[in-house]
C-alpha cells in the first residue's frame, strides 16, 4: 500500500508541473508572488512647486484685492459735473463760504474764525503745495493761499499723532501735487484736513475719511476760487518756512471780511493768474498775458503798457 500511494503522489506532482507556468531563462520577468515589490514614488518636486504657486497667488490677492476695493470705494468721492462736491457724503465735514482774492502783507495777521483756518484773507505768497511735507509749523496766512489754489492741507498735532501715523499721512502727500502737510501745535484734534471752504477734523491718522477728503477736494475745479493757478513756489523754503505764530492776533489784525483790502480780480471766478511761485500783488494791476511779480510796484507817473510788466524786480520780502 505505501508504494502505491507514493506512485500516485509522484504522478500528481508531474501533472502539476506540466500546467504550472514556466519561467524562461533570461526573460527578466519576476513571477507573481515572487521577488521584492517596487514602491510608488511621490512627486515631491511637483507638489512643492504647486504649493509655492498657490502661496504666491494668495499673497498677490491679499495685497491687490484691498487696493482695488479701496479704489472702487473712492470712486464715489471723485467730483464730476453732476456731483460737484462729493465731500457732502463725508461725515464731519464743515463748510463755509469765504471771499477770495484778499491779500495781506507778509507782516500782517488775519483774525481767522477757524483753527486751522480754511478760507478768508491770506498772504499774497502761497506756501509751496507740490506734495510738500513740512517738518516745522508754517504761517497760516501762507497756507490759506495754497487752499485758494486748490490744495488740501493736512495739519496734525505732533503730541497726538505717533511716528507711524505721521508716516501714513506723509504717504498721502509726498510727490502728490496740490497737497501739503505740516505740524500744528495745540490742535484740538489729532488731524485736521483743510481745502478752500472745507474742513474735517479727525481723531486718527488712519481714518478712511482722509483719503475720501483728498479725493473729493484736491484740485476740485468746482470747489476753489483760483482754478488753473499753480501750487509750485520754490521761494517758500520747505526746510525753513515762514513760521507759525501761535499768539492770538492783535487788534490790528485784518478782519475776516477783509475790510480795507481790495480783491485781486485775477483770482476771482476761476481766472488763473501768476507764474509758479510768483503771486499777484494788491495794487499792481495784472496785464493780460503778463503775470504780476511780487515786490514790483507800479512806477509813479509811468502808465502800465499792455504786454509789458511794471516796475523793477526786487528781492522777495519776508514771507515770499
Distance between the termini: 136 Å
The residue fraction in helices comes out at 10-25%
Indicate the mean pLDDT: 81
What strand order characterises the main sheet?
1-8-7-5-6-4
Task: Return residue spans where pLDDT drops below 50 for at least 5 consecutive residues.
Answer: 271-320
**Structural class based on helices, strands and sheet pairing:** alpha/beta
How many distinct beta strands?
8
Oligomer: single chain
Largest sheet: 6 strands, mixed
Please tell me how large the radius of gyration is. 39 Å
The fraction of residues assigned to DSSP E strands is 5-15%
Structural shape: elongated
Number of helices, counting only DSSP H or I runs of 4 residues or more: 5
What series of H and E elements makes up the topology? HHEEEEHEHEEEH
Question: What are the main properties of this structure?
Answer:
single chain; 320 residues; 6-stranded mixed beta sheet; two-stranded parallel ribbon
Describe the structure.
Helix content is 23%, strand content 9%. It is α/β, with parallel strands linked by helices and 320 residues long. A six-stranded mixed sheet has the order 1-8-7-5-6-4. A hairpin with a 2-residue loop joins strand 7 (191-195) and strand 8. The longest helix is centred in the first third of the chain and has 31 residues, at 44-74.
